[in-house]
Amino acid sequence: MDLFPSGEFPEGEIQQYKDDNLWRITSEEKRALERLAKPMYNSVRQAAEVHRQVQKYMKSILKPGMLMTDLCETLENTVPTVISKNGVQAGIAFPTGCSLNC
Fold this sequence. Notes:
Elements lengths: L22 H4 L1 H9 L1 H24 L6 H15 L4 H4 L12
């Protein structure tokens, strides 16, 4: 993704453990396991960033009276544009689900 050329995605808000779970911070073994999970966390953050960008774009183009098929096609075509750097390897960040509430 062009916004994060280093491949490191923003962490967002991190909550500290407290009370009975404080050992997760103080345990050397837990800290080592946490370091091993960093690549997986970065992949999840990338998916979240794709979702955020696509959602922001879709909100900007939504208009009353738009056809649902046009909306879905635009959404389906926007995801590959956002993940173009990794192409098929990155896959689809989320499937299109669509319902009309009358």
